[in-house]
Amino acid sequence: xxxxxxxxxxxxxxxxxxxxxxxxxxxxxxxxxxxxxxxxxxxxxxxxxxxxxxxxxxxxxxxxxxxxxxxxxxxxxxxxxxxxxxxxxxxxxxxxxxxxxxxxxxxxxxxxxxxxxxx
Amino acid sequence: xxxxxxxxxxxxxxxxxxxxxxxxxxxxxxxxxxxxxxxxxxxxxxxxxxxxxxxxxxxxxxxxxxxxxxxxxxxxxxxxxxxxxxxxxxxxxxxxxxxxxx
Amino acid sequence: xxxxxxxxxxxxxxxxxxxxxxxxxxxxxxxxxxxxxxxxxxxxxxxxxxxxxxxxxxxxxxxxxxxxxxxxxxxxxxxxxxxxxxxxxxxxxxxxxxxxxxxxxxxxxxxxxxxxxxxxxxxxxxxxxxxxxxxxxxxxxxxxxxxxxxxxxxxxxxxxxxxxxxxxxxxxxxxxxxxxxxxxxxxxxxxxxxxxxxxxxxxxxxxxxxxxxxxxxxxxxxxxxxxxxxxxxxxxxxxxxxxxxxxxxxxxxxxxxxxxxxxxxxxxxxxxxxxxxxxxxxxxxxxxxxxxxxxxxxxxxxxxxxxxxxxxxxxxxxxxxxxxxxxxxxxxxxxxxxxxxxxxxxxxxxxxxxxxxxxxxxxxxxxxxxxxxxxxxxxxxxxxxxxxxxxxxxxxxxxxxxxxxxxxxxxxxxxxxxxxxxxxxxxxxxxxxxxxxxxxxxxxxxxxxxxxxxxxxxxxxxxxxxxxxxxxxxxxxxxxxxxxxxxxxxxxxxxxxxxxxxxxxxxxxxxxxxxxxxxxxxxxxxxxxxxxxxxxxxxxxxxxxxxxxxxxxxxxxxxxxxxxxxxxxx
Lengths: 119, 102, 570
Fold this sequence. Notes:
The structure holds three protein chains of three kinds.
Chain A: H1 2-17, H2 20-26, H3 35-61, H4 68-92, H5 97-116
Chain B: H1 6-41, H2 46-70, H3 74-97
Chain C: H1 9-12, H2 17-35, H3 37-50, H4 53-59, H5 74-85, E1 91-95, E2 104-109, E3 117-121, H6 138-146, H7 156-180, H8 197-210, H9 213-226, H10 228-231, H11 234-239, E4 241-242, E5 245-246, H12 248-255, H13 281-291, E6 297-305, E7 308-315, E8 327-331, E9 337-341, H14 346-359, H15 365-400, H16 408-437, H17 445-466, H18 470-494, H19 499-502, H20 508-533, H21 540-549
Antiparallel strand pairs in C: 1-2, 1-6, 2-3, 4-5, 6-7, 7-8, 8-9
């Protein structure tokens, strides 16, 4: 559940930051019309979806000690939890959203390497 | 038809659609389930056929309800659920009524 | 308010098809939600509590505190104790202890079709345990799916029908909600509580609805499927014609993986009423453990039919997603394995998985809390929807005639919101307090506890009718807060399962409950304080022109945005 949550949280964060409203909340000083910004938002959008797909793939491909069906169930629960967490952050701590998203991604990679890939 | 006040007309239309949704929709879903159960029985075991049909029945019910509130008039709402329901029941019970073994 | 057009006007002005469908579904969403909204709230809340029904069952029987882990021969010892307690027993279902239920729970009867009696046994000695009479967590569970209001309720079939209708409404409300939510992607993460009024409530409703949507869809659809035989029997009737109508017994047998007419530990007309002999359960249990490769035994069912005693060992329902756990059938006398029952065909498996997802038996403690949290979100979604309706209507009314008092219908909705929704947590706390405070030996104790529940709920409704305002909310929620905060205290004064004992022992089955009650009390207290700090709405009546001129969004509780749900813009 932890790995699913971390990856989904990173994904949701990216998707949120790809939207005008939350992008401006997180980076209030940035010029949202500039092509660089628009490109960045597009990249975030793509990254978000890729991360979501990746996290599902990992859940199904590396179910650990349970069945794929159980792993998919846990993933779905983590998906919803992460969405709630991302929304809370976007509402109350929008400026920390990018940082937390990155941290979640980094932690997720760590957990995957040492937990799922392990024995 | 006598001229009725717009408000009563509106409320009657809503009531009519609601009945079409709840009861007409149920009839459509039920006949669909029965028909589908019989149809699928030739492809899989009876219990599998019934369960598959019943799982799908709720989707059919939901679509029927959506139809009754989307249709342009209350009459169309009823038509959209009753006509398919009647057609299905004819297909299901017609043979029986005509004395042929289903 | 827009409505499906049956006259000329709006529909003939060329609205795009999509927009017409969306608006129609918006209307349907509002009304399907509103009509049974309060019932749906109660069903959702009691269902959410049911995820922890084992914990409630335990907490409400403090006499079961401090039980040790079961011995390996718990089943045999319990059987002996049962025979001693009830020598004429002819049929029993013995649930073995697990990490959430420390005692052995035996349902037994001596006559074929009488009600089962319950017997609680010590997991090591087998001694009968005396616990106070209470419905426990089973009340929430049974109210949830059949609206059971009394220990031996008589309207439970009707209750299931009503719950079925409510479930269908919920299903429709969910689907139409998705269709109606025009900015479902753009507003995915949007929650603006500081905007106040309609905008904040709509955001709350959208966010609580969309973010946990997979859970709601699953729980609602699976709810319809669990009682499919009752709600949509047409398929069974068509495919299982019988001599006298429908042969539903065959359908159910096949659904459970049984061959109709085979020996069954559950149903069948060949049940014998003669007392069972003592059986040697040990070898059968070890065979089960072997076949299931260490899987847990959930329960043991014993019955006699024309061929003698029959033992059915059922796997623990928490061992997998699919509900309807695997079963092993043994001949009672010889101990020989006769059948392995575990249907895995696609449709039955789908049914089993949906059922299992709904019950949540598969969940470990972490997942269980997550499911509980989702249930709370769902309850908040329903509540915010009902409150939004009130807030929106009031805003529209105030714009039209600023000085008018609340119309009857809207006053009623506001009262029901306070009484039926705000009052439910209060009623639950009253039920739990009653469990601690009512005399242990009183006759009809379970029903007395339930009377406290329903009486308190009715009181809350009365308060809501008298004060359908923010004051009313503050009053009811304030009372609830007090009740929850009192619970750990009352627990300490009346039992020895309180935090002073359970915390040092790290006995989370007990401490977790008291801590949760305290947390609930604190949250409700914070909410009550918040409600009392903000000035109530009716003042807006004569201040409306001034507010309209003031900076938008600055005032908490400022007027909302005109238009219906589909036209909401930022």
